[in-house]
């Protein structure tokens, strides 16, 4: 499902060198009837996707841009408000809370998750027996992590009577209700996100596999230690993969919804400590029938994510090394 | 993967074409109605019994249930109404019928008043479903706010149930703390009492109202502050659980998980129609008490509608939907299935007809309502548009207070500001 992408210039270190590109393009040729027919067939096959894309994705996105300038209660036609929804955000204290919660979550959980993914990929790459089994086991949480079932399980595990407190009880520590305490509820969700390190790990593993052994051999000859090899060879050659994972995980984390919704019962509580941006958007839209304001919130989230991604790409010029 | 996703819209379109409102039966057309309500599996079962009786009498109508847990119900309803896929008959509660009616989503029941009979329902009760002079919602039953007490837990603590015609909040605090101390780790005197209904009760006991007749916020910051100071006292004395447990209890609504339902609490403030579900969960003979009052003041509690039946404004079959609503309100057969599950029936004749069939628990509930009717003050005015947000605001600020993150007076100020903002049109 996920492929290692090649960003802007060059290719990921993993990819085999591309076939020699034709130096001089051949003069334009008349396309044969067969090619034409195939082209038409291709468009025909693409049509359902294209119709779906326009009707189900692009249409609603544009509609929400319009709605973000209106007051729209779902049940009555929208009323034009101009920029009022956007102005309102400046004074919306719960929105500011939501931003604080979401930024904390993204800035803490993404680095932790990537570090764990890289560390495990590194050790699995050292030739563990039964690699395929471990890889599957570690990948499993990534498939399950966003699900409702896991979120419910999480609430139980970190509840007052939950597994964590029972384990703590065994060593004589009296625990507390983790998900129901405003100081800790967000941490349990960060742990949940870090736990789904499998997807970036598998990608790291693929990247590690592609680093030519000759670099390490050369380093051995020069007497480099394990740490030096990791820091001077592995990490630089892996930077495109790290970058890819970073961009994807940041975008994904900003959009976190299910876990927060289930763990807090849809409230973002206790005391708004898990009020994620998307959850707040949902509350305004479906709880208070303020679809116009919710649409405006969604667009601001888009701008935030686009901003983060742009900064990422700009910064990447300084630290991401492509093979060639 | 891609192809599947691309074909999905096509499948949806095909499915949409397939599902019409009517399906041809062997003998004439059968109308399908969707009936939405919130509640547990138990309620769904009772409802199915009612539907079976209704369909037996109305072979031309088929009723499909559409239900969800209370926490998810109104989210689901909002989404389906917005999508133009509103259920034909919708159960409403609190101020939701005002919100939906105010936005044109409900049928003015005057259009079907030849089908829905309301002669046997009192004007006071119907007033709750009347918005701007038109009847949009009819209460399903009568309900009363009550302090439920678990005699087994009282006995465990060596205490007797109080005389609920005279008891005050001080008496409550004392009893509650004694139970909490006696149970130790095994339980608490009471579940935290704070919610918008309790604030309404507290306001009435202090000569105020949560909402005025004009739909404004009527409670003062001082009165709200006093409540939260009291809630903190209860927490600190071991009457109510620590904030973390209160938070956990607040985030779920199943009777089986409450302190009363697990026999880990002596008392709790509830709506009287929940008694049955709580009794089943706890297995004990629970009792309903009139909530404690302020020394020498008003009892404060009131009889109100438990839920409402409404019909979607865009229902394709308003007449059939009205027949279902009429059946649920006025036919003993429906009441025999529901008994007191949706509150004590509003139709006086129907109420009398089912009295003998009530279980002991339901009889206790009916007796409580009869006692409360004597003690209750003036009726509570219908909840204004925008007041559906109050519940969430109270719960959120309550955890701020119980976790000592906000002082009672600050939380009270915020409560006033936020509710006023939500009520503003």
UniProtKB/TrEMBL annotation, chain A:
Compartmental location: Cell membrane
Residues of the region (Disordered) are: 1-33
Q: What is a single cellular component term in the Gene Ontology annotation?
A: plasma membrane
UniProt keyword terms in alphabetical order: Cell membrane, Membrane, Transmembrane, Transmembrane helix, Transport
**Superkingdom of origin organism:** Bacteria
What PROSITE patterns does this protein map onto? ABC_TM1
State where composition is biased (Pro residues).
Answer: 14-25
Q: Which coarse location class applies to the principal site listed for this UniProt protein?
A: membrane
Q: Does the record's keyword annotation contain Cell membrane?
A: yes
Identify the residues that the record assigns to the ABC transmembrane type-1 domain, covering every copy: 99-312
Residues passing through the membrane, by range:
41-67, 103-124, 136-157, 185-208, 229-251, 296-315
Its membrane topology is listed as: Multi-pass membrane protein
What is one GO biological process annotated to this record? transmembrane transport
Would you identify the family this protein belongs to, as annotated?
Belongs to the binding-protein-dependent transport system permease family.
The identity of this protein, by name, is ABC transporter permease
UniProtKB/TrEMBL annotation, chain B:
Q: What is this protein called?
A: ABC transporter substrate-binding protein
Supply the source organism for this entry.
Jiangella anatolica
